[in-house]
Structures are given as structure tokens and as C-alpha cells.
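Sync notes, pocket subgroup
Present: LS, DG
LS reminded everyone that the earlier model was apo-only. Rerun requested with heme C included. Inputs:
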Amino acid sequence: MKKPAFEKNLFLLGMGAFLVFSVGAILTTIIPPLVDHTFYQSPYPVHTYTASELNGMKIYQANGCVYCHTQQIRNLKEDQVRFGWRLVEAPVSQSWEYVNDRWHFLGTKRTGPDLARVGGKYASSWHWAHFKDPRNMGEKYQTQNNRFQEASLMPNFYFLSDGQIKDLTAYLQTLGRNMNWRKGQSGEYLNDYEN
Ligand code: HEC
């Protein structure tokens, strides 16, 4: 069968592919904010990162934390229960929470737990100990074949300096804190959790 000229002409083929791609791009990125003016507006004040927290973000990026950790609570009961705090379920992530992020670490690979709500879950000293030696965290319990099961499977980051860990932890402690979501049993807000 004779091929139509369109397929033989590389320029026309490229233009065709570009046009098809543009339809998707225009429909998903350009049209929505024109139709809905609240699209990129945050209904709440969003935390502005300090210099130390921004440096922590860079350390997070440089050390590939995003390869194992996501930062998005999906609209799934499992996520909300798994990443909650003391039986308070974690709220689903909202777009406005990310408006001040210049690097986005939403991630796709969930080797480790999601970190979108980790801010305030642990004291900063916990994070320091965890980065230095994750194997030494939490309770150790004996397994069937008489070997101890170490608490955290995460690789260690002992090579980070104390200053780097301080910045990285400062950044981690901001995650999920734009939203005042931890409520006590009588409904009171517990925004200053573990520290
Ligand atoms: C190779 C994969 C991997 C990488 C890379 C990694 N982690 Fe982890 N991380 C894990 C796993 C797995 C756990 C859960 C350990 C467990 O509970 O046994 C974890 C746990 C954590 C926790 C505790 C979360 C919670 O809710 O208990 C924090 C915080 C954390 N990681 C931060 C980081 C940061 C920051 C980096 C980058 C410096 C990083 N991780 C890099 C795999 C990874």
C-alpha cells in the first residue's frame, strides 16, 4: 500500500505530533486557570521557607530522598490512616500546600513512608539520630531465626554534617504544617505536637 505523503514528510509528521501534544498541554495547563480564577490562589497563608529550610530542600534534592519518599497523601483511606498521627487521619494533600515550593518532591516511588505530613511527627533530635544510624531506632524485637530485626530500613546518611542535618530537619518539620490538622480528642487543635 502506498504511504500517504504526510507520513513520509518528517516536517509535517513533527508538526502533527506537536499539534496533538499541544491539545493536551493547552487543555490541562492553560485553560483551567483561565476558567477558574481561584486555581493558583491559596485560601490559607502558606509558610514562606527560611534560608535554612531552603538549604534543607537542596539537601533533600541532592541526596535523592525523592527516590524513596513521596510527598502527597492520596485520596485513599489507606494513605490517610497510614500517614496520620496518633489515630488522627492525615488529610488528603491539596494543591495550595505546594504554592511556595520551587522544587517539587511529590514523587512516585513509595519505598519509604510518605513525608507530606511528617512535620512535627518527631522531635528534631529523633531525625538527627535517624539520619546518623537508622538501624538503631525504635524497638528491636527478636525474629524467628533468633536474629534481631532492626527498626528502620532506611539507608543511613551519617556523612551529612550536623549543620546539614539541622537544615534538612528544619525543612522536614515544615511538611504538612500549613494545614492545622491534628486535633485532640475533644476537638482542640494540637499544632505544636512533639517538640
Ligand atoms: C533507599 C530508600 C530511601 C532513601 C533514599 C531515603 N529513605 Fe527515608 N525511609 C526509607 C524507608 C524504607 C523508611 C521506613 C523505615 C522503617 O520504618 O523501617 C524511611 C523512613 C524515613 C523517615 C521516617 C518517616 C516516618 O513517618 O516514620 C523519614 C523522616 C525519612 N525516611 C526521611 C528521609 C530523607 C530526608 C531522606 C533523604 C536524605 C531519605 N529519607 C532517604 C527509605 C529511604
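DG: Residues 60, 63-65, 67-69, 111-113, 115, 118, 121, 152-155, 157, 168, 172 surround heme C (CB under 6 Å).
LS: The CA atoms of residues 69 and 112 lie 5 Å apart.
Action: DG to write up.
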